[in-house]
């Protein structure tokens, strides 16, 4: 499904070339982005892929947009830049155009994932403690609830999360299983955070299925070779001056992994 068909960044320039976010895309020749069911913004740190996702989320008024700090005495350049951008929506399988995005559409940032991981871990530990107290002391439901309330009152910084039982990777996958629903547009900023290579592949496969079978569209910022090689995606290389579409196996980060393991090939053959 194509909910967002295209997005055109502002081509306006300012006298001060260092004002954000105008400076992120300075000296870039950028045609409008044309989106597939899964589209990837690839690039190394500082290339602007997270900024780009946030601009799209702001222009489309998608839940999860990060609000930049602003000064009331100065112009809000982020808002100005967004207003200068343009987009077009797609159509359904019958060719009927969309006039608005699905309500469940969401922008999920890497820091959102880490925050939710800690919330899930805290809840799991509290529930584990309550179950233990209930089993060991034969508490009534009322007393058990009292125990839980006391645990909730403890300051969160004093809780030591059990990483062996509630790993970041497991809770990260749990987060995506909870929030990625059918029939929606999702902007994902580095969803591979905290995931092992195997779990990155598992998440990418799930995204492929959500797109193919359940009417989702994804725009993803990542430089993970495991995500890049698994997702059935159109990939924009933000490291290139013209933001050209590039096969995953030609991207710099992927080639780095290839060359590294090629250099150590004999060790794997021992």
From TrEMBL:
GO biological processes: iron ion transport
Protein name: ATPase
Top-level division of the source organism's lineage: Bacteria
Membrane-related topology note: Peripheral membrane protein
Chief location of this protein within or outside the cell: membrane
GO cellular component: plasma membrane
Species the sequence originates in: Faecalibacillus faecis
Compartments (UniProt record): Cell membrane
Keyword Isomerase: no
Keyword set, alphabetical order: Cell membrane, Ion transport, Iron, Iron transport, Membrane, Transport
GO molecular function, one term: ATP binding
InterPro entries: AAA+_ATPase, ATPase_AAA_core, P-loop_NTPase, Siderophore_ABC-ATPase
Keyword Ion transport: yes
Pfam families found in the cross-reference section: AAA_21 (PF13304)
Domain AAA+ ATPase: 35-241
PANTHER family: IRON(3+)-HYDROXAMATE IMPORT ATP-BINDING PROTEIN FHUC
Chain coiled-coil ranges: none
